[in-house]
Amino acid sequence: MNPSIATDRTHQPSRLPKLKLKLSTVIVAILAIVWLLFSFYPIFYIMFSSFHDQKGFLIGNIWLPPADPTIKNYVDVINAGFVRFFLNSAFVSVISVLCIVTFSLMASFVLVNVKTATSRSILNLFLVALAIPIQALIIPIYTMVYRANLYDNLWGIILPSIAFGLPLTILILVNFLRDIPSSLYEAMIIDGVGEYSLLYHLVIPLSIPALFAVGIYQFIQVWNNFLFPLVLTQSENKRLLPLAVFAFVGEHSVNVPGIMAAVVLSALPLILGYIFSRKYLLAAMSAAMAVSK
Amino acid sequence: MNWNDIVHVIGFPLKIRMVETLLFRRLNLKLFLLLIPALLFFFVFVIFPVFKALHTSFFEDDGINPPSWVGLSNWETVLRSRDIYHSLWLTVEVMILCWVVQTPLSLLLGLFLSKERRSTNILSVFYFTPLLFSAAVVGIAWGYILNPNFGLLAAILTKVFGVSTVPDLLGNPRVVIFTLVAVISWQFIPFHTLLYQSGARSIPAALYEAAELDGVNAWTRLWHITIPQMKNTIITSSVLILTGSLTYFDLIFVLTNGGPGDASNVIALEMYKTAFQQYQFGLGSVVAIIMTIFGLLLSLVLVKVTGFSRMESQMEGV
Amino acid sequence: MSKSPKQKKKMNRLYLLMLVLVLATVTVLAGCGSSKQTSQTSTGGSSNSSVSSPSGSSGDNSANSGKTVKLTLWSIATDLDQQMIRDETDKFNKAQSAIQVTPQFFENDPYKDKLRIALGSGNAPDIFFNWGGGPLADYVKAGHVADLTDLLNNQFVDYKNKFPDSVWGPATVDGRIYGIPTEGSAVELLYYNKALFAQYNLNPPETWDDLLHAVRVLKENGVAPIVLEGKSQWPEMIWVQYLTIRIGGPQVFEKIAKGEPNAWSDPAVIKALEYVQELVDMGAFQNGYASMDCCKNQAEAMLASGKAGMLAQGSWVYNTILNNYPEMIEEGNLGFVPFPTIDPQYSKAVVGAPSAYYSVSSKTESVEAAMTYLSEVNYNDAEVDILINQLGQIPPVKGVEDLLKVSPNADFQLWMYDLIAQADTVQLYWDQYLSATTAKILLDNISKLFIKQITPQQFVDNMNQTLGK
User: Within an 8 Å CB–CB cutoff, is residue C120 touching chain B?
Assistant: First the structure.
């Protein structure tokens, strides 16, 4: 077989003349646009609603951007302490994700390389726990958190979040680490290297793509978590972003454009992060998925 | 052609699992230390609360008075009423519908996006955004869009299509579950698309080219090459969809709060409402344990059926 | 594959280690629990951890001991109301240094849960807003609320005399007072769009027959007769509660409240539920009523724009309309009547509340400091002025009638004032009267009834099971 023509088809730009417009391409293009409208329009709607003033919101052409946009809602959100909520969310998410990824990598390293019955049982234990619902445990966790004096404390959210991020992360990392060939390990062991060095010098560098991928996934999960802060915090200065949107819900009325502005601001960091790291994220996930096959 | 030819020709770093070698024969202390943080957190915040919830289920606890022992009476109350079975049924419905809706769409989108083109790159950015919003926020936004009197959908239907009575998608008990599944899918299809996209990239082109040489059409290509090659991705994605929809709470809470009536009262909501709206933590704990048992069973079945814990290389036998 | 002895030993060792781990965590957590009691501070949120002298008894004048008492206050006020509380509290804080109060504001729906969790876990705020009635009685019986009766009868008797006697009812448990009134009186009534009614030659819906006629005519002409916020559940309860009163009198619910067996089976209740279902069958409620949320301006928008003819809601809605659709009021388009009558002997009863309440936590550092703050800020002249003139409310203080006469919203406020004054019974909203658990069950059943998921008989059976609990 001639090596020069058998390049990976999925990466090769099409060599066919672009003039021919097949029916299937047209259909695909239409479907793609339909999906674009369906998936992105609601977000577009949230964004331009945030520039509406409250009274004009329910009347008039609501599917188009407002006639006289205002940034008052954004000002209100920031005045309501948005910066504080943002910092709280950032603190909780960053620390949680660092711990989740670190502990999971350490555990996965052991579980992949020690092939005894017990390690397999522990792995199965983590897997099976994947389906244990957070909500089911919120009552005892709430009790534990306040008895440990961590109620209304950001650490009270961080600690359980770490625990709940572990099963999925371990699952993904185990599948990833499984395929690091033993030859690489053996080469280093022959040189007389110990377990910790193996972890540090071999496994970590190789698993950066997977770590990055799970890290991002867990970051989104923790950032957007609603139930934990709902139950485990109460003061305004401990509030996290998902709850901050509810600051615009009053006893007898609701400021909807205000809510929309809060929503946009709270998703903005994630959106920006996504735009800038998209390529890297995709490469990381591809590498992770490829290797896990 | 032989194995080495393929590797050489494609130039793609295939990793082939060799015979499993026992790297470390025993769990020595140094390794165990590595395992401790994960195990510790897991036991304290996952395993222990399960037992604590079980413990609470035997008490009557309203949150402001000291709990009092009631034995099995909470269990009787829950298991005798029709509410729990209704909730479990709704949950199963949601799970199945979510899978049926999300998997084919994500698969097709993933395949579509896996071809590296400028247009697909730009499109992926937009496609991915729903995932970045928290479920509560998605709920608020869609609540407005679907509002039959003020919503976007209503406006489009009446002004563009001239419909006279806008369907109440969130207030109609027969339809509400489908509406919820649609919104949930809207949010999560991007994630699964990403999984399938990544999975599709690592299908070796050789297989497609061999198929083209044999004159096989697109449909057969899809069914006999693509899907089997993506078996692991499909399994991963499916496991995540099923376990995720079992515990789904945030969006349904915001959009319908289990209503109208109890038409969308999935089990996570039933638990929350019993515990935090009726202030009966004992009863709520019973529902929580039932939820956990259900989840564990599901997960055991999935692990067994899909051989998840021993995923083999797709390359064997090529 | 059978295990070799070596592997068996490894397994046993690991299991042992795991067992030790579990036992260790359990012990640690149990230990944490007991240490909590001694380290508990009484100032609520951890942002306010202060060094305070453990005064304990209420007779002690900790305000003068030289150490600052720091108190937290929880409220759900928004907008102008919230601003008023912040401003007045600021003034109070700046005028002296013995007592410093920090208000914290919460959103309405999660507030009840938050409060309950806080009270139950010992993290309660010193002063907290509540609606009195059943939930407050629950907290009192669990020992979380401070008894204010003695202070009110002695040190703060002048403050007590600001209020008419009827205002203390919902905050009284077993003859002792556990709350200070706050916010304004409220009643539930029927609003209607006068222009629409004029257009179709309809009488104001003062009797049930008037209402039914209006429903038919409006429906024929493509207008939603009644706008209902079904998703929030309690707006639906307005109909059930008022119909029961209008058909069988307020005494029907009083039996229910006492927990008399089968009290829900009263024929008045069943008839009321049947009337509701009749309305549903007639299509009296707007398209999508089951999914409309309260308090998002939507119902008010429909009423104001003529898309709906009637709305049964509370007097606070006047405020919403005033702020968002002032043209409706300026043009004289906003009609308001008491809930339509059925049996004339029951036409004077009113559903409402004299006020909401501030209660003081039993674990607070100084009940007296809390009372000092409340007596100086709550309903001081500045607040009363704002409540009447800018918020359109009626603070339940003596002599308010004169102040109302010169308010810009005198029409509505005086009407409401007379309505309450002449009522033979003022019944508290059912979901505030009953215990929180029963209230939620009631609301769920009402919600199912309104979409005809259950029959009136099933509703009654379900509710009878909650009696005596």
Answer: yes
* Residue B2 DSSP class: -
Per-residue pLDDT tens digits for B282-305:
999 999 899 888 888 887 787 777
Nearest Cα residue in chain A from C118: A234
Q: Do A253 and C320 touch (CB under 8 A)?
A: yes
Assigned CATH for B83-307: 1.10.3720.10
Which domains are delineated in chain A? Answer: 75-291 (1.10.3720.10)
Structural domain boundaries in chain B: 83-307
**Omega before C205 cis (within 30°)?**
no
Chain B hits for A107, CB-CB cut-off 8 Å, are 34-35, 37-39
Q: How many CB pairs under 8 A join A and C?
A: 100
What are the tens digits of pLDDT across the range C66-89? 688 999 999 988 778 888 999 999
- For chain B positions 76-105, those within 8 Å of chain A (CB to CB) are none
Q: What angle do CA A59, A62, A65 make, to 5 degrees?
A: 120
Condensed to tens digits (0 to 9), the pLDDT of residues B117-166 reads: 777 777 777 888 888 887 777 887 888 888 888 777 888 888 888 877 88
Reduced to 3 states, what is the DSSP secondary structure of residue C131? coil
Quote the pLDDT of residue B130.
Answer: 84
List the one residue out of C221, C226, C227, C171 whose CA is nearest residue C199.
Answer: C221
Distance CA C382, CA C356 (A): 19
Amino acid identity of residue A264, one-letter, is: V
What domains appear along chain C, each with residue ranges and CATH number? 63-178+356-395 (3.40.190.10), 187-353+422-464 (3.40.190.10)
Flag if B149 and C25 touch (Cβ within 8 Å).
no
Cβ-defined contact of B171 to C116 (cutoff 8 Å): no
Residues in chain C closer than 8 A to A58 (CB atoms): 297-298, 301
Contact B246, B14 (CB under 8 A): no
Burial C248-259 (b: 16+ CB within 10 A, else e): bbbebbeebbee
Nearest Cα residue in chain C from A149: C36
Q: How far is CA B84 from CA B77, B280, B283, C37, in A?
A: 10, 15, 11, 37
* Residue in the block written with tokens 């009787």: B76
Which whole number is the average pLDDT over C1-12?
50
**Residue C222 at interface with chain A, using a CB cutoff of 8 Å:** no
Query: Does the structure show a pLDDT above 90 at B98?
Result: yes
